[in-house]
Design goal:
The protein is α+β, with helices and mostly antiparallel strands. Helices cover 35% and strands 22% of the residues. It is globular, with a radius of gyration of 14 Å.
Length: 106
């Protein structure tokens, strides 16, 4: 399930999950910056339905996201793209990378 070209925030996402009674969700986010609002403001109870998350982070440090996910019981692996690191090293204030977070003992 995905929302194409629709602005989404934590409240809309929470309502969408609850309305459809989704559980055991593999969440893939590529929302060009909204990952901070979504992951930092989504209620803890919704994360009980999401054992795995993969997302890009943009612009800001991923530390608050990783801290929140760790506090919710996720193990996080951060990866930066070599191409992104080279390209964005020219623009010091911009960060980009991918985080995989899992509650699974896979």
């Amino acid at each position: 399930v995905f929302a194409y070209n629709e602005a989404i925030n934590s409240e809309k996402f929470e309502n969408f999950i609850k309305y459809n009674n989704f559980s055991n969700i593999f969440l893939k986010l590529d929302c060009e910056g909204c990952e901070y609002d979504l992951l930092l403001n989504l209620p803890n109870e919704i994360f009980n339905r999401i054992p795995e998350i993969i997302f890009e982070y943009h612009k800001n440090s991923p530390k608050p996201l990783i801290k929140r996910l760790n506090n919710l019981g996720y193990s996080c692996n951060k990866r930066s793209s070599t191409i992104s690191e080279i390209y964005w090293s020219l623009i010091k204030h911009y960060r980009v990378g991918v985080i995989y977070a899992s509650k699974c003992s896979c």
